[in-house]
Amino acid sequence: MPGGRSGGAHVTARGWGWRHASRRAPAISDLDLDISPGERVLLLGRSGAGKSTLIQALAGVLGGDEEGDGVGELLIDGHRPESARGEAGLVLQDPDSQVVLARVGDDVAFACENLGVPREEIWRRVPEALAEVGLDLPLDHPTSTLSGGQKQRLALAGVIAMRPRLLLLDEPTANLDPEGVGEVRDAVGRVLETSGATLVVIEHRVAVWLDLVDRVIVLDAGGGLLADGSPTEVLRDRGGQLAAAGVWVPDFPPHRPRRAPMPDGDRVPLLAASGLAIGRVEFGRRVPTVVNSGIDLLVRSGDAVAITGENGVGKSTLALTLSGLLKPAGGRLSAEAPLAAGLGDSPHRWRSKQLLTRVGMVFQDPEHQFLASDVRAELAVGLRALGLPPGEVTERVDELLARLDLGRLAGANPFTLSGGEKRRLSVATALATRPRLLLLDEPTFGQDSRTWQQLVDLLAELLDEGIALLAVTHDADFVEAVAERELRLTAPVVEVLR
Fold first, then answer.
1. pTM given for the model
2. DSSP string spanning 333-344?
3. pLDDT of 128-141, one tens digit each?
């Protein structure tokens, strides 16, 4: 209803909980909740508190008995979510998992087609939804060439086109540049005003959504609710308690770790790029498309470089190129002697086992690098490939489990972890083999303030020990806390800041 808020769904939970089949402790438990039609809820809680589990359950996509079991009652307008087809629209943490079709327009139309929306209405909604999320691309543009942030907008456009009565967003702005964050938030606001839909949004950085929501619900990792009320009441009256529990509270900023500067004589050159051109191979083509060119960069031990820029300018592609996983499209990329350690100077020619102790790469999507059936085994994959003694493997794995708050998840399947837990595991797998050069793509995605600080402190220690770090990020706090230099990519030039 235009201008109204009565078109939303009513959500209730009574003693509801869920336990994944591969995890000992329940992901969420003892939840009692009532969300009125049209309410706009910001859902908070520490990493692993069950936020994603809850909204996946509300979307009816949590899985069958083989994936876990639930207790209690969770309803949308008095019905189980699985039977409320089309009532809820979900944007997941991982936008790759929601890209279905090869062309942008077809992908946005997919959900509407499954709901039986008339063809003429579908193709009226599709361009409107793309415009609302700021994705200015032709309808036949290939989805395979989109950046992670662009895929995030595409997923949101597909949900907006559905016109759901319950809008469920799981960190929808996590991989977006600052301009994109504002565009997506404003797009959601417009949809809510015209549709009256109920909103439940998960976002660790609460300031993004405070002017749009009217209620904040904080899940307790031990079960039930830690806080529930208006944004002012929850964040002002209980800010200290929430910050201590890992919730991002605007008046409790993270601290910048103190680093012990390395003597210049110890900072040896590791990687040099001169006139580097980076490209990506589009689906079905042999010739790479150059995303960015003319990059000059010298990375030394102890360096911390943030790679920033708008979505789609080639940040992730640059990281993959610097890591040796993609061949440069032009220019010169050279590994210096301390990094090459007897190999040739072209990282893309090195074997995977040779990369392990030289270059560690953490992909934007953590699931792309998981190989084992449980967390402990995942951390040991690279170490066993190096042939390390069992005792040393155990020692390194135990240290990383403790430092990155993964100990309680040692026996869990990596694919059942929350988004923030998956990200910490993917970083830990790269750290396990102790590479000289570390490349991280959005390393702080999905982290609460507590785990964010743990990760930042650990990286600062490794920098003091002489590793070099390059991080693709939209996290301004991370740049401020860790980076010494910022490499800002634009299309088609590169600007070096600081």
1. 0.83
2. EEE-HHHHTTS-
3. 999 888 888 999 99
